[in-house]
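$ ./design --mode recover --in tokens.txt
reading tokens...
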């Protein structure tokens, strides 16, 4: 009797059973975007002889395997290891200060066996897990609980900020805000929490334009009103809020003069008028805008962009990869990519809503906050709407640590989906 071919004898259902409840739409979208990223990296390096696009795909393959392994492992196990994960996160960031490698004025990488690892990237996932576990045990519905969560986040945030890595420290802030909001924190408290930063910006802009004097005054009054409505101790809380916001201008000047590095100052200022230093700090942004604008509706075609192929944009394969999309694939290509990212964010929201517990829901929201913030800031800085902060475009920019981190994060979310209660949606 003839045996059936091996592909007919394989029990395919049993092979995929460990992953039968994962969100396949999300996984396919992530793999597709990663593959697309390799194609764009190759185009950006076509005339330079580099093979970063191949490494991007290899690291993406490794990341996919890690994501699938995490997806079949119950995410609840992480609850008992939250402080171990938190300790390892902080110790890795401390190690950068002593054995780290410096580049571009920052000390961010550790060399292990010839490979450069960026602990601050993996620290994002560590912070998400720790915050999710804390807010699972006690929601942020009270001010002490919210401050406790912020205190835990402040340690890795501070270690990243002093590297200095301003971009990644901003990502930590976005993760914290998103998870605190999902963890039942009063939205007014979150506004008050970031109000000193906004006040600092407005007060410093008042030295440039008198119009911002009125804007600053309105903002301070608004924060006082929010404090009166949301804080349990109305008078004291409102007074403290007004004082803090009024003093933020002076604090901003101190930080500007004594904390921020020169290249960080250039990034924060030159996006407003890059023509002030067209051959220096403003060069990246000027060339990026030229590339994106020249793409018009349909683009010049893959591997056909003049700015991209003639290497006018330094480090285009990393932080400025979106300019290659705009030039070679045009407005249509940019909108198609944004549509894909919108679907990815939508799947993350659906997983968060349908998770069986707060821990899983918060994990999904933390990953959503991380990816969405990086997406908005990266695209914003390439078109001149945000300062250049060195934040990569998720799954597309070249960066081994960043890509692995994103796949690990997706693996955690897929575990939440895989072990959720059966729901209809």
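writing sequence...
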């Amino acid at each position: 009797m003839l045996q059936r071919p091996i592909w007919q004898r394989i029990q395919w259902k049993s092979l995929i059973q460990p992953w039968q409840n994962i969100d396949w739409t999300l996984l396919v979208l992530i793999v597709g975007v990663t593959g697309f990223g390799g194609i764009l990296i190759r185009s950006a390096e076509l005339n330079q002889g580099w093979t970063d696009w191949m490494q991007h795909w290899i690291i993406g393959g490794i990341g996919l395997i890690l994501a699938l392994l995490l997806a079949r492992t119950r995410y609840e196990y992480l609850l008992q290891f939250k402080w171990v994960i938190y300790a390892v996160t902080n110790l890795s960031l401390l190690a950068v200060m002593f054995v780290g490698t410096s580049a571009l004025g920052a000390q961010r990488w550790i060399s292990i066996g010839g490979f450069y690892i960026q602990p601050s990237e993996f620290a994002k996932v560590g912070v998400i897990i720790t915050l999710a576990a804390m807010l699972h045990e006690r929601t942020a519905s009270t001010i002490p609980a919210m401050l406790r969560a912020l205190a835990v986040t402040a340690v890795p945030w501070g270690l990243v900020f002093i590297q200095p890595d301003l971009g990644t420290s901003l990502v930590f802030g976005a993760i914290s805000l998103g998870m605190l909001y999902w963890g039942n924190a009063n939205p007014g408290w979150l506004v008050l929490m970031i109000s000193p930063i906004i006040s600092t910006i407005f007060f410093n802009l008042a030295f440039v334009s008198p119009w911002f004097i009125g804007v600053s005054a309105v903002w301070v009054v608004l924060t006082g009103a929010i404090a009166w409505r949301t804080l349990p101790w109305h008078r004291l809380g409102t007074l403290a809020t007004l004082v803090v916001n009024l003093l933020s201008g002076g604090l901003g000047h101190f930080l500007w003069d004594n904390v921020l590095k020169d290249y960080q100052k250039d990034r924060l200022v030159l996006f407003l008028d890059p023509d002030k230093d067209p051959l220096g700090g403003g060069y990246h942004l000027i060339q990026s805008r030229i590339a994106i604008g020249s793409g018009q509706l349909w683009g010049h075609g893959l591997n056909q962009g003049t700015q991209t192929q003639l290497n006018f944009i330094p480090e285009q394969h990393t932080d400025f990869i979106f300019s290659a999309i705009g030039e070679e694939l045009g407005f249509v290509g940019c909108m198609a990519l944004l549509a894909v990212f919108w679907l990815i964010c939508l799947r993350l929201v659906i997983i968060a809503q349908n998770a069986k517990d707060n821990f899983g829901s918060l994990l999904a929201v933390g990953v959503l906050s991380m990816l969405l913030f990086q997406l908005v800031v990266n695209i914003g800085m390439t078109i001149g709407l945000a300062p250049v902060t060195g934040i990569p475009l998720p799954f597309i920019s070249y960066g081994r640590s960043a890509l692995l981190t994103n796949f690990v994060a997706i693996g955690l979310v897929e575990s939440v989906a895989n072990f959720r209660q059966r729901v209809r949606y």
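exit 0
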